Amino acid sequence: MNTLVAVAIAPFGVGDELAPEVAEVVRVIRESGLPNKTYSMFTEIEGEWDEVMAVVRNATFVLAQKGIRTEVILKADVRPGFENMMEQKVRSVDAILESDVADGDAEKGGIA
């Protein structure tokens, strides 16, 4: 089943600068071949449930196998029959916002 996850995988106890460890995690995700996007606090990954969870596991273990305590925060949207949710969800919201602006709602105190 198609699954979209937002995941944050972060090390603990490695000091104030986490970028090197986060880069290791993101590298594993990007090399997975699954569609993904990295943002400041989460990385989104989309694919079949088992594939996505394997990527989350591998990305987590890249730190944990080094003895680094690792926190995982995961939010999942399992939506049978839908694909490309990472892009489509944003397009749907953008279309509504564009429609609101075209209708003049922004000037009437609506969404700006």
UniProtKB/TrEMBL annotation:
Ranges where the Thiamine-binding protein domain occurs: 5-93
Protein's name in the database: Thiamine-binding protein domain-containing protein
Tell me any Pfam family this protein matches: Thiamine_BP
Which SUPFAM superfamilies does UniProt cross-reference here?
A: MTH1187/YkoF-like (SSF89957)
Query: Which family is annotated?
Result: Belongs to the UPF0045 family.
Q: Sorted alphabetically, which Gene3D superfamilies does this protein's record hold? A: 3.30.70.930
Which PANTHER family does its entry note? UPF0045 PROTEIN ECM15
Q: Which GO terms describe its cellular component?
A: cytosol
Q: Which domain of life is it from?
A: Bacteria
